[in-house]
Amino acid sequence: MKLKVANITATLFAGALLTASASYASLVGAGDFTLTGGAVGTNNGGVIFALPPTLQEGSILGNGTGAFSGLMMGQIQTINSLLPPTISPPTANEPNWIQLSDGINIDLVGSNALPLPGIGLCSAIVTPVNGQTCVATATSPVFFTQGPGGVTATLITNGEAHFVGDSDLTPIRGVFSSSLLPSGGNPLATLTDVAAFFTTNSHLPPQMYTATFETTSAVPEPAAAGFMGAGILGLGLLKLLRKRQALS
Predict the structure, then answer these.
(1) Residue 238, SS3?
(2) Neighbour-count burial for 32-49, b at 16+ CB within 10 Å, e otherwise
(3) Average pLDDT of the residues of the chain
(4) How many Cβ atoms from other residues are within 10 Å of residue 98's Cβ?
């Protein structure tokens, strides 16, 4: 009788393992994808659009990998504009910020912390040197870097990927990058060019961007982890009991 009860107990533990595993399997796995489109930088955020300029859209550049392998070159995706209060680090927050055609959404949960450590205002730069960085305003999460071929704008975002309607979240990091192009008579080739244009217009002209998103390690919920551990123990116990039954 004791052997039978122990056998049933071990079976229940194994069932707990299967249940926890099924729950954990709904997490978005490893993978990455790249979006491209256009953006207009303002003094308090940015408007994102695809080309042709349809508001709040971007297109897939290349093909997605891993969990995002269903995303193909040229597919149009929904990506909401980054405007206050959405993009007011460190409280950047927008559920379903990016809505992908493969059934995965990305919540925005943060971006570069403000003020950006060690990065001053572009307006304070007199003679830019390669590798130097700055921001247009003290409240901007976008930073500019001087390179030999011009200026690059960068925004780093933190998010959580999940399947539509699912509460299991996988951390995902996004890096927006734009090599600034001339606009009219404004070259935007140096950090001082950027500062001058921004001071006059309070925004930057439309620019193309690429944004690469990649999931980082996902940690199971504590309860799920406990069930998984108990289930593994139960499977071991079940195997031991069956071995004893075979010998008796």
Answers:
(1) helix
(2) bbbbbbbbbbbebbbbbb
(3) 79
(4) 25
CA distance 43 to 29: 36
User: What's the burial of 211, exposed, middle or buried (CB within 10 Å: 0-12/13-18/19+)?
Assistant: buried
The predicted structure's pLDDT at residue 190: 96
Residue with tokens 């995303």: 71
Two tokens, residue 149: 């071929």
Provide the token pair at 59: 């297109």
Q: Determine the Cα–Cα distance for residues 175 and 155; give it in Å rounded to an integer.
A: 6
- Average of pLDDT values for 100-129? 89
Lowest mean pLDDT among 50-54, 136-140, 172-176: 50-54
In terms of pLDDT, which residue wins out, 34 or 108? Answer: 34
Phi, psi of 6 (to 5 degrees): -65, -35
Q: Please report, for the chain, the start and end positions of each structural domain, with discontinuous segments joined by +.
A: 1-27+220-248, 30-218
- Of 13-17, 38-42, 127-131, the least confident: 13-17
| Contact residues for 223 (Cβ-Cβ < 8 A; gap 6+) | none
3-state secondary structure of 23: helix
Confidence (pLDDT) at 54: 63
Asked if 105 contacts 96 with a C-beta cutoff of 8 angstroms, the reply is: yes
pLDDT-derived band at 18, boundaries 50, 70, 90: very low
Using CA atoms, how far apart are residues 154 and 161, in angstroms rounded to an integer? Answer: 21
Cα dihedral across residues 126, 130, 132, 136: positive or negative: positive
162 Cβ partners below 8 Å, 6+ apart?
28, 104, 105, 106, 107, 168, 169, 170
